[in-house]
Amino acid sequence: MYISLAHGFARHMLWCMDTAFPDGTETEKTTGWRGSRALWLDAARRALLESGLEAVKIQPLASQLNLSRTSFYWFFKDRQALLDALLDDWEARNTGAFVLARDAYAETIAEAILNLIAVFYDPHLFDPELDFAVRAWGQGTGAVKARVTAADAARLDAIRAMFQRFGFGPDDADVRARTVYLTQIGYISMQVREDMATRLLRVPGYVTAFTGTSPTESELARFHARLKPRN
After folding, report:
1. Considering only CA atoms, which of 49, 61, 40 is closest in space to residue 133?
2. Are 177 and 198 a contacting pair, CB within 8 Å?
3. Would you list the domain boundaries of the chain?
4. 116-154 residue pLDDT tens
5. What are the residue ranges of helices labelled H in the chain?
6. DSSP class of residue 20?
């Protein structure tokens, strides 16, 4: 407890020194809003996507946000804590999307796979650019690579469970799950750029290739309805 209080006091003193004029008055930056955890995290995510890991540093982010450097410490202990939060956010969002798709209502395996494909097409649910950036990050950091490997395993488990739910045997479900997932990761890794109309035309064929059955017109209609722009 005493250590925690001392740390909090020291952090407060650093903030005061960073934001005061020689006569003791505060600078304009700190008399108002200090930002928010979400704001700092969003800025870090944009920096990672646009410029890579080296751009995710406290001072440059503070300058971009027009906030004092020490405002950062109200929300994160240090840069590593920010990086950990970025990974937590990526995991909750991108891997969590597979769990949502696994548990979504579906009467057939074709509809279940359409639920999963809809996740890949909805940036609110799955961010392919963030996935690519984290994978690149993991190439140089063992701990991050381990998290990427664990995420891949969790996502495959979710797809495998989807197939098994509809009566596919363990081995068949495993091969089909890998076919679905590695196809999508290939799109991300190769940074394939296609217009939405082209992607949508291929969807029925993908579903047939992945499941061995073709989606019905009503299933495709529900799929297309999910992709309508959000208000």
Report:
1. 49
2. no
3. 2-76, 90-226
4. 999 988 888 999 999 999 999 999 889 999 999 999 999
5. 2-18, 37-51, 58-65, 79-90, 96-103, 109-121, 128-138, 142-165, 170-189, 196-211, 217-226
6. B
